[in-house]
Structure prediction request, 211 residues.
Amino acid sequence: MNTDGNLRSEYNRLNRQASDLSDDEYRRVKSQFIESVLNRRKVLFGTARFTAELLSAADLELVIQLNQTCSDFFVFQNGLPPGEDDAREIFEQVPPQSTGVIKLPIGIFHSERLVGVLDVLRGYRTNSEWYIGFMLLAPSFRGQGFGTEIHSELVSYARLECTRRLLIAVLEANESARRFWLRLGYHKVKDYPPRQFGKCLHALTEFEMVL
Prediction:
């Protein structure tokens, strides 16, 4: 808090407002303030239309609700509607033997509502590479340039973090997603044979963007 002027101002305002409280009431108010500070998400980047914030396991229910809104994606990929395990993956799933990888579950918020997620692995496959597991947007926010805007800010943020390459694997059958990433400037790296996704088999194509 010593390095955050806004937090210091909030804390000082709380002290002024609590001057007439009893010791027990003051401790309760102070405890609530500390809890609210600890639960605040870190804002990574954003524009006038959205903020990209680092999610934690405390946001699991928000991700479950978003996934249900985006059930078309999961039914297409897995042949099944999304469940809690799908939401947990954004916080927990890391490829085997990937030491040093940092999981970045990024929530996209519009007017304090979670409207999208980015599943990013920082430092996979090398320290200077980030792997985008997927980018998901609520249906009502698609087709309005949000995806392009979010990606542009992600690229700027990644460059500040000394990232040299972004990678993503796209389902071969997902033509709209393939067109989207190609339009952003990604280039095909390689094709992968079909693998199991829930009840479905999908081949994958890996794309890259050199920063």
The longest strand covers residues 187-197. The chain has two domains: 5-38, 43-210. Residues 43-210 form a domain with the Aminopeptidase fold (CATH 3.40.630.30).
